[in-house]
Design goal:
- The relative contact order is 0.28.
- The strands form two sheets. This protein has a four-stranded antiparallel β-sheet, with helices on one face. The protein has a two-stranded antiparallel ribbon with strand order 3-4.
- It is an alpha+beta fold and about 120 residues long.
- Helix 1 packs antiparallel against helix 2.
- A hairpin with a 2-residue loop joins strand 3 and strand 4.
- The protein contains three helices and six strands, in the order E-H-E-E-E-E-H-E-H.
- The structure holds adenosine-5'-triphosphate and magnesium ion.
- Adenosine-5'-triphosphate (ATP) binds next to strand 2, strand 5 and strand 6.
- InterPro entries: N-reg_PII, N-reg_PII-like_a/b, N-reg_PII/ATP_PRibTrfase_C, N-reg_PII_CS.
- One of its GO terms (biological process) is regulation of nitrogen utilization.
- It comes from Deinococcus peraridilitoris (strain DSM 19664 / LMG 22246 / CIP 109416 / KR-200).
């Protein structure tokens, strides 16, 4: 299991959401963040110059996935978030020790598998 954190441009959020959904990723957390990715602006003054470290609005996606979904998720995010310009974002992958689904007590891969629709009681109206 891995925890994937992806930082992307806000204008690509919709595309990333759709790509993840189509790739079968069913659990994701999204946060607006402020990030710095190395870009600097040099402001000239009459007595020298000043370097401004810029923080830009970005969006962070976090998702815990089982091993077969790691590369699938990374490729989906890359395809959806890529413009080719600096500042497209980054993807971080961390090993995940444990996952627990609170409702059922299921753990790890079981806790990451979406609840099977057929297990649900049909609602009679
Ligand atoms: N090393 C890092 N650690 C934590 N967050 C980072 C790191 N690098 C980038 N980020 C986050 O990702 C956002 C986008 O980074 P950015 O796309 O500029 O990465 P980059 O490696 O500089 O790539 P590029 O060359 O395309 O600019 C940043 O605003 C920041 O939130
Ligand atoms: Mg950068």
């Amino acid at each position: 299991m891995k925890l994937i954190t992806a930082i992307v441009r806000p204008e690509r959020v919709q595309q990333v959401k759709e790509a993840l959904f189509q790739a079968g990723i069913s659990g994701v957390t999204l946060t607006r963040v402020s990030g710095h990715g190395g870009e600097q602006e040099i402001i000239e003054h009459y007595r020298g110059s000043r370097v401004v470290i810029e923080f830009r609005e970005k969006v962070e996606f976090k998702m815990a996935v089982s091993e077969p979904f790691v590369d699938v998720a990374i490729e989906a995010i890359r395809r959806a978030a890529h413009t080719g310009e600096v500042g497209d974002g980054k993807i971080f992958v961390q090993t995940l020790d444990r996952v627990v689904r609170i409702r059922t007590g299921e753990q790890d891969d079981e806790a990451l598998t979406p609840v099977n629709e057929t297990k649900r009681q049909p609602v009679l109206k």
